[in-house]
Amino acid sequence: xxxxxxxxxxxxxxxxxxxxxxxxxxxxxxxxxxxxxxxxxxxxxxxxxxxxxxxxxxxxxxxxxxxxxxxxxxxxxxxxxxxxxxxxxxxxxxxxxxxxxxxxxxxxxxxxxxxxxxxxxxxxxxxxxxxxxxxxxxxxxxxxxxxxxxxxxxxxxxxxxxxxxxxxxxxxxxxxxxxxxxxxxxxxxxxxxxxxxxxxxxxxxxxxxxxxxxx
Length: 215
Ligand SMILES: CC(C)(COP(=O)(O)OP(=O)(O)OC[C@H]1O[C@@H](n2cnc3c(N)ncnc32)[C@H](O)[C@@H]1OP(=O)(O)O)[C@@H](O)C(=O)NCCC(=O)NCCS
Description:
- The chain is globular.
- It starts with a strand and ends in an 11-residue tail after the last strand.
- 37% of the residues lie in helices and 24% in strands.
- Helix 4 (138-152) links the parallel strand 5 and strand 6 (157-163).
- The chain has one domain (4-211): Gcn5-related N-acetyltransferase (GNAT) (Aminopeptidase, 3-Layer(aba) Sandwich), CATH 3.40.630.
- It is of the alpha+beta class and 215 residues long.
- It has helices spanning 25-44, 47-56, 91-112, 138-152, 167-175, 190-193; strands spanning 4-6, 15-18, 63-67, 73-81, 121-129, 157-163, 179-185, 197-204.
- Strands 1-2-3-4-5-6-8-7 form an eight-stranded mixed beta sheet, with helices on both faces.
- It binds coenzyme A.
- Coenzyme A binds next to strand 5, helix 4 and helix 5.
């Protein structure tokens, strides 16, 4: 489903790309680590190893990329649809990559991030924009395009999780129609991962979403 798609900007850049472009795995892994390294470090660190693990277990058909004029990935929205997420990697892969002793606790940590979609649901699997490009509308484009993917796949709802230390991202989601449905307190994660609560948000998918991130 690698269909290039133009973003709604008059200068022609950035543009959205359905699917992660062939060869973009390393760039996506680097962006994810830049954005979520604190959260992922315990499970997949050290950083170079974690980025390599993410890149080699990436499902290109489960992401939307924002590309700059040179074709570099400057933003990505991953999603889980029908049980297939942007990042794969089974328990066996973790054990073979990190060894038996190191692998078992990592598998337990990774289980905390696993969010299976319910029937008719698309679950967002991380959205991030390169730090140098934030605040310019790329995240909004990616959210709209994710809603288009949900609508095209006959989903009725989008679900995501946001942590308590990220109020700006939460405000962005509210502006895009998401509402909080419940908050899980996670004080045991404050020290290892830097956050103490996770809020799940939902947004209904409507026929208007079919137009996505394009004008
Ligand atoms: C959240 C994120 C994807 C938004 O992408 P973006 O391209 O900056 O989004 P837009 O330009 O469309 O909208 C900007 C809004 O995003 C939100 N935002 C969240 N974190 C931000 C940041 N570090 N810089 C700028 N805006 C941020 C704000 O609501 C901002 O609007 P405001 O400054 O007027 O309040 C991006 O900031 C990012 O990658 N953050 C780090 C990773 C992350 O937190 N992902 C979400 C996990 S739930």
